[in-house]
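We include the entry.

. . .
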Amino acid sequence: MADSFKIDFQAHGKVESGDLIVFVGENLKPSATVAKQLGPKAVDLIAKAAAAESFKGKAKSAMSIVVPTGLSVDRLIVIGLGGEKDRSDVDFAQLGGLIAGKVNGKLATVVLDLPETEVTPDAVADIALGVQLRRYSFDRYKTKKKDEDNGKSGGRLVFSVADPAAVRKAYKTREGIQQGVIIARDLVNEPPNVLGPQEFAARAQALTKLGVEVEILDDKAMKKLGMGALLGVAQGSVRGGRVAIMRWNGGKANDKPIAFVGKGVVFDTGGISIKPGAGMEDMKGDMAGAACVVGLMHALASRKAKANVVGAIGLVENMPDGNAQRPGDIVTTMSGQTIEIINTDAEGRLVLADVLWYVQDRFKPKFMIDLATLTGAIMVALAQEYAGLFSNNDELADRLTVAGKATGERVWRMPLGPEFDKMIESKFADMKNSAGRFGGSSTAAALLQRFVNDVPWAHLDIAGTAMGSPQNEINKGWASGWGVRLLDRLVRDHYEA
């Protein structure tokens, strides 16, 4: 059954039916516009109900008044915005998710005139985006579906706003972002028997419908290019590796592109250095970096971003086959540098080494950002609240930090210096792929830095944020689609013509 849920925007006016959603601060008073619309009896009703239910208007709290006296609606839902500090720091997407969790799949009207809080058309668009992201679920493999689950039976959500035309224009750009996040979530959630390297590459190929140029490199092409590090990981699987190159040319013809690179290990057993069995099923998500890049390219192309963008993803499966690489093997990368394999479970950096070199060599980008579920060590440092940020460029790092605060996809800069580079020196090759437990995220980043060739670069270790991440108001599933909103915001703020 198709989802018939619909979002609309209309001017402020009297609400006659369905649910009515309004907002109050800790003083329990709605804005003057809402108070006038509700009338004094309804405002008094809110105060009385709040006293009875110990509702204090704290941020993210809510109460429902069924068949409210003096109003012709079914329910009056009152959502708290908290005190002055809370109201000055509202995450509008999260607020949209909170709203989505309160509606029941029928008609609901949200009056977006908040007490002592400015709500711009962009803010309304972000609220609507949060609603849609909250409603996501991955149930395509369930044979017994309940359409009423998670409000999937449809319904209509109306936002009552000051300027509906301006809001519709702003929301149009969010639709592509929403779809991009959903694409990333779907890719990460797919079972590994369905989504191998070739199938993943085919999903990237689908972006051609939006005007993205897509090129797929197979084993033969990668061997010709000398991608020995990536192919070394892929050789243990009967499913050959792939590299997908996606290009969106929305900027000026002579402008250098910006580049995003994703780790796409579709399943990671650890190879010969095999992982423990407990929880190994989660290793289907070891391609979340690549999923983000595909979702980002969809978002940018959908809104016709005025930038030249390259997205590149290295797709492999890391298996312990009789042909798999061994600890002690030495591989030669596309750059000509050699890597001694210490641990075959440190495979993501091998994939990225070749793809990063390929991108900087072929496209000469303004900058490169890679995303990878690279190390468990980053979760020891940052839990699942921040992605680890490593960079050779302060401006790029600062811009990512600001974009992270704006979108809620937060990053924290981690150290990257010559001490970590020294730790990956090898007795037998130019470097080794693992330096042990201490500083594991920084030594992994140090290896990657050897393949960026002085291009401004940032590495985002998203092992804690992209899969199995803590649920919040806009993500109730396993895969978060982390990074799509962050990087779209980065491009929008700084890199469009």
User: Anything to note?
Assistant: The chain is about 35% helix and 20% strand. The longest strand covers residues 258-268.
